Input
Amino acid sequence: MSKIDYLGLDGHTLRTFLTVLEEMSVSRAAERLSVTQSAVSHTLDKLREIFGDPLFVRDGRGIAPTARARALRTSVEGVLDGLKSLTDQRKFDPLSEEMNFTIAANDFPIQLIFPKLLKELSEEGIHLRIRFISSGIPKVSILRASRYRMLITPTPPEGSDLQKVALIQSKMEIFYDSTVRKPPKTWKQFTERSYVEVRFSDTETSLMALPSIDASTMNPPTVSVPNFSSLAPMIKGTDRITTQLAAMKLGLLKDLDSAPLPFKTDALNLFLIWHRRENDDPAHQWLRQKIIETVNSIMRD
Output
């Protein structure tokens, strides 16, 4: 077996490998990295020669990692984290820094926070690139995998390597159209109502944010939509209802009426979450603080 030429490895090469491993697609990895597919393929050929392994093989219409590629993941993440830590104490100037962030969130926090934040940053002459990806009900692996640099959700995954701060504390409320109906006043009325749910996948719905609700005791939803933006049009002018964070009155559900739930529930937090590898990165620290300040401003208004 030939000796591995470790000098042929660099941060860009390792980042390309990790991105392909996360995306399971050369084309999606190229899009994420803002390079051509041929550039990604060339880098993979280089890595195959260095490691003496195909790393990725055809699997139907896609690709699958070899055992060696899967085994390399933790080591590659560690090397990239180590390289990144070398610059964590650099002098940081948001006016001159090139900043790229991928943020996992659903459409409610995206619509609530970022139009105001990005407008204010633009007025200050600060420009950053943000890619938003829907989080659904997130799993801890998405932050460990380096795919997202931040996560905003009321249902945080648990992990000792994750950091979090509460952005908003809000009760869940019933949203409805008062020109058509009154809100349910009892548990029975609530369970028998015509309901609109947000369904992120076959197994994930927004009702999961309410652990006190046993969905099996309720009538099946009348309408299922893929995001929070679709709720209001499905409720306005009908007798349908939905149950969402009261804070949505500040944005996506501002045109609907709201009322307390007819049973006791605890307030929920909307969390900003990140992996501890990002803790000391000055750009990450700066954006976290900007998000917190923007939320505080919105809640005061």
